[in-house]
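Chain A, query sequence.
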Amino acid sequence: TFKSCKMDSILFLIFLVCAGEVIGHPPARGASFVETTLTFLVSVNATYDDCIATVKTPPIHSNTQYNKSANIMVGDCDHGPLIFQVTQDGRDTNVYLTFHSSVIEDASPPTCTIKWNYSYKVPERGDLMSSLLPGCFVMDSREGYHMTYYWFYILDWP
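Chain A, predicted structure.
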């Protein structure tokens, strides 16, 4: 019946959302997960209380579940678990990163992807302002009003 079909669809959607939290980003066809440990620089600009901070994380192991990951304190601006997965497909390596922010309460946690080749970037002629660290940037709003900005950079790896 329509009601049972609708309920099955809702349950399936709930399953997908919950599975995404545990599974994370599945590797693309032909790609595989890479086990590694990374150290990140994490910067937060929380405009609601004019807080800006940067922290160097301790070494974090990839593919760690949310409930088993360490709480990262970013000054007085934000805190939460930082989890990531690394996938590799030939020469392409991606770091899928999620910061379970204590600030973002009414939206998905800040998530971004770092394209990485296991090295620091090389300066390009005429580009004096770009970071030499592989990284990504994401922003989110708190309750649809104040913006919070996040920068994640890979600082060190084995």
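Confidence is low (pLDDT under 50) at residues 1-24. Residues 2-23 form the longest helix (22 residues).
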